[in-house]
Write a structure and sequence with these properties.
The structure holds two protein chains of two kinds. Chain A is built from eleven helices and twelve strands. Chain A is of the alpha/beta class. Classes of the chains: A alpha/beta, B mainly alpha. At the A-B interface, helix 2 and helix 3 of A face helix 8 and helix 9 of B.
Chain lengths: 328, 342
């Protein structure tokens, strides 16, 4: 690996996000949903880190914590040298231009009563001192960049199709020239033909603007196409992290193996021949995770040790991490 | 939007005609007698003559059509004559809708009573809205805080305690228990002949209007603050609020620009739908504080079986309700860009 490429832009250490459960007449806290339970990873400058996992495993929560859209319970999030987990209101706002998010639902994440132009230019009003003409020019440039006609600036979000709305969301995220963008399942709400367009747009923008992405998705083939490195999440914890190619070719963790074997084969004639690892049972509740390894209840290789000791997060190859007792 | 409004206005004409007919039937079926309050010594044949002089011996549909002619043709012509001096037809001897009890034209009676009602009830509506909106916004923003709990409690009290109780309670506290020389002493009777000419008479006006306004404002604020709170909560959890925060906006702009503006859409329509009640007056509160407004006029009319008066007042309320329904729909379309009527 080249050293200059290995400069981490984002360093997440021991991130925990526990949502309190309040019950009873006095609404006392009786427990916590451990949506994210102690995860650490780096995102290097200019790369795309894919974050995959099944529904409800805490992927989106990680994305929101990393931009501090939630108040994190524990841990540090270092973005470009500043720990944003402890920043106060005004300092955090000043930091916001550097880090942006593209949301999953392009319909709900745009204010229905604002025109596209004002949605895109609102962050400019807040963070920069621009004249009206400059702002209009900037909005026009951003709309060009994402492939929307400039004359759409006076329309409202509901007048657009899903793909166009996601482009508005991307233009909005780009308005302040961020370095780091969290893409929270940006293509999940789009149909397949549009997915490719949006993903290509994200790639083009990354190349042009030197962006760094944290790409959250459950679409494994899309992540393989887009990501430099991939992190796999299960029940609030990371189970494996490695280079995209290595991880897809030789998955080490039994959960990653099961997840990857679930990817449909493009050739239906061959599909029957694949040896699929089918997991039994349901994902345990994050309010009450099993002791030891959280995957032990469903793991085909689980043994007694798994139910007692939580496996260590360790490097098993160059830049390849996993948390399992049985990986050499 | 213009086409929609015109189309809706056209549909209101048959609706209102039907409403006026139903009101007429109901009043005709009601077992009251305009001569019922007269002394018992009046012999039945004289009573029958009195009834005939009021036009009660004619068949029901004739009486209805006569009312229609008087209300829809004669009254507007009379208004034109009074306002602009245009005299069309026989403007000296035109038959107007007149009250049986007072013998004066009903429209003039309403015009006399309207200012008191608009001042007292209208003011209470404005005060209620001004109290309710901030309470609703803060309650939703700090959901389940002590402020929210207190707001919920006050709203429940405002909802469930009737105005004839709160009105009398306030009179007992501020007019009876309070010493007469205290600055907090308030008069329990609203003096409609009072004129504001200087500072001290203005202060007196404030004092006499304070209690009826507060009684009604509590009731209005209770309703509107709940709507405001629910609508704010609905919007606070929307994704676009998270987007606004991710943009790095100040919490104030997130709340006031994004959340509040979207939350106001249903609240504004609720407020618009409540305005006819302001014109309708507050029958009970006006009675308690002796405000001689429209609500009191209606009660007097019902007690004396003054059918033309009750018919006309009720019909005007119906017109206001239909109109403000239309206003609410138009406002909804103006405020929410997703709604297009054309």
């Amino acid at each position: 690996m080249l050293d200059e490429k290995k400069k981490p832009l984002v360093q997440v250490k021991n991130l925990k996000m526990h949502f309190p459960i309040n019950r009873g007449i006095l609404k006392r806290q009786v427990g916590a949903v451990k949506a994210v339970d102690g995860i650490s990873f780096d995102v290097f400058e200019g790369e795309t880190l894919g974050l995959v996992g099944e529904s409800g495993c805490g992927k989106s929560t990680v994305g929101r914590c990393v931009l501090r859209l939630y108040e994190v319970t524990e841990g540090s999030i270092d973005i470009d040298g500043t720990d944003i987990a402890t920043l106060s209101g005004a300092e955090l706002r000043a930091k916001r231009p550097e880090m942006q998010m593209i949301f999953q639902d392009p319909q709900a994440s745009l204010n229905p009563r604002m025109t596209v132009g004002s949605i895109i230019s609102e962050p400019l009003d807040e963070h920069l001192n621009m004249s009206k003409a400059e702002k209009r020019e900037k909005v026009g440039e951003l709309m060009d960049a994402v492939g929307l006609a400039r004359r759409f600036a006076d329309r409202y979000p509901h007048e657009f199709s899903g793909g166009q709305r996601q482009r508005i969301g991307i233009a909005r995220a780009l308005a302040l020239n961020p370095k780091f963008i969290v893409c929270d399942e940006p293509i999940a709400a789009l149909d397949v033909s549009i997915q490719a367009q949006v993903v290509n747009l994200l790639e083009d923008l990354q190349e042009k603007l030197g962006l760094t992405y944290l790409f959250i998705s459950h679409d494994l083939s899309m992540v393989r196409h887009l990501a430099t490195r991939v992190a796999v999440m299960y029940l609030g914890r990371l189970v494996e992290l490695g280079d995209s190619e290595t991880l897809y070719m030789t998955p080490k963790h039994p959960y990653t193996q099961a997840l990857l074997s679930a990817v449909p084969h493009p050739d239906p004639a061959q599909a029957g021949n694949i040896d699929r690892v089918i997991l039994q049972g349901d994902v345990p509740s994050p309010a009450n995770p099993p002791p030891g390894c959280t995957f032990s209840t469903r793991c085909p290789r689980a043994e007694a040790v798994c139910k007692q000791n939580s496996p260590e997060w360790r490097e098993i190859g160059e830049g390849h991490f996993a948390a399992c007792h049985f990986i050499e | 939007m213009l086409n929609f409004t015109l189309r809706r206005l056209m549909f209101t004409i048959p609706t209102l005609l039907l409403i006026s007919f139903i009101i007429f039937i109901v009043l005709d079926l009601a077992p009251n007698d305009p001569t019922g309050n007269l002394p018992l010594t009046i012999p039945p044949e004289v009573r029958a003559k009195i009834r005939a002089s009021l036009g009660l011996d004619a068949p029901m549909y004739i009486r209805y059509l006569l009312w229609c002619q008087q209300f829809f043709i004669n009254e507007p012509l009379n208004l034109m004559n009074e306002w602009f001096g245009w005299c069309i037809g026989d403007c000296e001897n035109r038959l107007r809708v007149s009250s049986w009890a007072t013998r004066s034209p009903v429209v003039d009676l309403i015009a006399e009573r309207m200012p008191q009602t608009l001042w007292v009830v209208g003011m209470s509506y404005v005060v209620g809205i001004m109290i309710a909106l901030p309470i609703g916004v803060i309650s939703a923003y700090k959901q389940y805080s002590w402020f929210d709990q207190a707001g919920t409690f006050v709203a429940m009290v405002g909802f469930s305690v009737p105005t004839f109780f709160t009105g009398v309670l306030l009179i007992v506290i501020f007019s009876v228990w309070m010493p007469n020389d205290s600055i907090f002493w308030l008069p329990s009777i609203y003096d409609t002949t009072h004129e504001v000419t200087d500072w001290s008479s203005f202060v007196f006006q404030i004092r006499q209007i304070a209690m009826p306004v507060m009684v009604l404002a509590l009731y209005n604020a209770a309703q509107i603050s709940r709507f405001m709170r629910a609508s704010m909560l609905d919007n606070l959890s929307q994704d676009y609020v998270r987007t606004a925060r991710a943009k790095g906006l100040r919490e104030k702009s997130v709340l006031l620009v994004h959340v509040l503006r979207n939350s106001m859409i249903p609240v504004v329509t609720v407020i618009a739908l409540g305005i006819p009640q302001v014109f309708g007056g507050a029958i009970i509160t006006e009675q308690i504080f002796k405000v001689n407004g429209l609500g009191q006029l209606l009660i007097i009319g019902i007690e004396g079986a003054d059918i033309p008066l009750v018919q006309t007042l009720t019909f005007l309320f119906a017109v206001l309700i239909v109109m403000f329904n239309l206003v609410a729909d138009v406002l909804y379309g103006l405020l929410d860009p997703r709604i297009r009527y054309d």
